[in-house]
Amino acid sequence: MPLSLHQLPLFPLQTVLCPGGWLPLRVFEVRYLDMVQRCHKAGAPFGVVHLKQGHEVASAPRTRSPDSEPAAEELENVGTLATIEALTQPQPGLLHIQCRGTQRFQICHTQKLRHGLWVADVELLPADLAVEITPDLRHTTRSLQSVVDTLTAQTPDPMQMPLQPPFHWNDAGWVANRWCELLPVPADLRQRLMALDNPLVRLELVSDILEQLRLDAER
């Protein structure tokens, strides 16, 4: 039976977090400040979900035009748990956190609380099986290693790197997930890739995208 979590706090974003991914966030909205501090103190995760419609930052009523209403927030139904690995408070009302994606979940029921925070009852999805990368897909690892080498040379602070160790270069799911985060593709495509259950199929699709990008660059 799948493990369920009740009243999991959600952080809807216009990005997609994959398992093993690294996510720095600046938190300043009241609805998230308390949630993040509580999660950090308890060592508990929160859920990151892709925001299909709506805005990450809620607008105050006085900032809206009189004849317009903000688009209703619409969330994807598969997200990823995020655990807080570092938290700093550079000034009152502002938190800097660095999170790592852990396990995917399926949303069963959502509720938006009065102060704007989303919570959900979720079922955790099985982690990717450790699948060795097949010879025809090893170029995806070589290309990713090259990207990491370039980023390392260009990024003075290692904590600002979009990819963080541990690196699992021969794990199909891990390599596919890192490409999902780096590829210049629409967020809805990232979401579909992240939600795929088969890590080798995910990596095959990533390989197809890389090939298409290469062909486009040569035209």
Quick summary of this structure?
With 219 residues, the chain is of the alpha+beta class.
Structural notes for this entry:
The chain has two domains: about 5-125, Roll (Archaeosine Trna-guanine Transglycosylase, Chain: A, domain 4); about 135-219, LON domain-like fold. The protein is about 30% helix and about 30% strand. It has five helices and seven strands. A five-stranded mixed beta barrel has the order 1-3-5-6-7. The longest helix has 20 residues, at about 200-219. Residues about 60-65 have low confidence and may be disordered.
Count every beta strand, where a strand is a DSSP E run of 2 or more residues: 7
Name the strands of the widest sheet in spatial order. 1-3-5-6-7
Tell me the radius of gyration.
18 Å
Average of per-residue pLDDT values: 91
| CATH fold name of the largest domain | Archaeosine Trna-guanine Transglycosylase, Chain: A, domain 4
Helix amount: 25-40%
Sheet with the most strands, sense and barrel status: 5 strands, mixed, barrel
Structurally, the number of domains stands at 2
Give the H and E element order.
EEHEEEEEHHHH
Based on the structure given, which CATH architecture of the largest domain is correct? Roll
Task: Give the termini distance in whole angstroms.
Answer: 51 Å
CATH superfamily of the largest domain: LON domain-like
Beta-strand share of residues: 25-35%
Number of helices: 5
CATH class categorisation of the largest domain: Mainly Beta
The unreliable regions are 60-64
What's the overall geometry?
globular
Structural class: alpha+beta
